[in-house]
Write a structure and sequence with these properties.
The complex is a heterodimer of chains A (173) and B (106). By secondary structure, chain A is α+β, with helices and mostly antiparallel strands. Chain A has five helices and six strands; from the N terminus they run ββαααββαββα. Chain A has helices at residues 18-35, 43-48, 59-88, 105-125, 149-170, and strands at residues 4-8, 11-16, 92-93, 99-103, 136-137, 147-148. In chain A, strands 1-2-4-3 form a four-stranded antiparallel β-sheet. Chain B has 106 residues and is an alpha+beta fold. Helices cover 47% and strands 17% of the residues of chain B. Classes of the chains: A alpha+beta (173), B alpha+beta (106). Chain A binds chain B through residues 47-55, 61, 65, 68-69, 72-73, 76-77, 113, 116-117, 119-120, 123-124, 128-131, 153-154, 157, 160-161, 164, 167-168, 171-173, and chain B through 1, 40-44, 46-47, 49-50, 53-54, 59-61, 83, 87, 90-91, 94-97, 99-104.
């Protein structure tokens, strides 16, 4: 069973199992809530919206740049998340009890960026700074059913990599 | 994160300077700002290659060279130009989840 299958130039079919649909929907909703928090001072949003200037003498330029681009970046990410959510709400029956979702080129790209953002955000929240990190991401659910963060990031990574396989094939060598 | 690359990494030469990167000293001299992408532990190598190709139109080989420089040396200059152009490039890279900054070319 292929994760992604390009049926036509503007039609990509994504196949997920029911539990995966629920997990992805929950994670993307958590990411959306993080993006829209009034207080953006947390590890996830610091990672998604880093500084443009590291030079401390460019603080005024940094402030100007943030005022110009930050709201647009947040808006683009929220629009992408909403588009992916809408796509995940329109399943068709797939093989082996799976669900299939049709993505056009725009939503396909929004899916890629949203899932990648989710990896970045949850890894940052979990304190992942290298090849190893905390084993569990306790921010989600009770401690008893907290999500194993390494598995979560790996699973999201599989989705990203499977889609990248197709998208790199669309680009010239 | 397990990453698969189809490139023979030992044969890759990474540009050391903006001039070498862009191949046009006049352009660089007129626009002394550069965009740097920094290594991070989460983005996959192939995702970074894809973003470089998509945003800058680089060939697969050139995008891979830059990605490997980020991975192996911690950072790489990926574009250059006016301050305004570089600010735009940084915004586009941030939109794609890459950790990018701009600075004057040294």
């Amino acid at each position: 069973m292929y994760r992604f299958e390009r049926r036509t130039d503007d039609e990509l079919v994504l196949t997920l199992f029911e539990g995966e649909v629920a997990m992805l929907t929950m994670l993307l909703a958590e990411l959306r809530a993080l993006l829209l928090q009034p207080d953006l001072d947390n590890a996830a949003t610091e990672r998604l919206f880093p500084r443009a200037y590291l030079d401390p003498t460019e603080e005024e330029a940094e402030t100007d740049w943030q005022s110009l681009v930050h709201d647009d970046l947040v808006r683009e990410k929220v629009i992408a998340l909403d588009a992916v959510k809408a796509a995940l709400e329109r399943p068709s029956p797939g093989p082996e009890g799976s669900r299939q979702f049709t993505l056009d080129r725009t939503v396909e790209e929004q899916f890629l960026l949203s899932v990648n953002d989710a990896r970045l955000a949850f890894a940052a929240l979990a304190g992942v700074t290298g090849e190893t990190g905390p084993e569990r991401l306790d921010e989600f659910g009770d401690a008893d059913d907290a999500i194993p963060v390494a598995e979560l990031i790996e699973w999201l990574g599989h989705l990203v990599e499977a889609l990248i396989d197709l998208k790199l094939a669309d680009l010239p060598d | 994160v397990t990453v698969r690359l189809d490139t023979d990494t030992e044969s890759i030469t990474v540009p050391d300077t903006v001039e070498e990167l862009l191949g046009d000293e006049e352009i660089v001299g007129a626009h002394p700002w550069v965009v740097i992408v920094w290594d991070d532990p989460v983005n996959t190598m192939r995702y970074v290659v894809y973003v470089f190709q998509k945003l800058f139109g680089y060939s697969r080989a050139h995008a891979t060279k830059l990605m490997l420089q980020v991975h192996n040396e911690g950072k790489s200059v990926v574009s250059a130009g006016t301050r305004e152009k570089c600010e735009g490039d940084v915004a586009r890279l941030h939109a794609h989840g890459l950790w990018a900054t701009l600075q004057r070319d040294e």
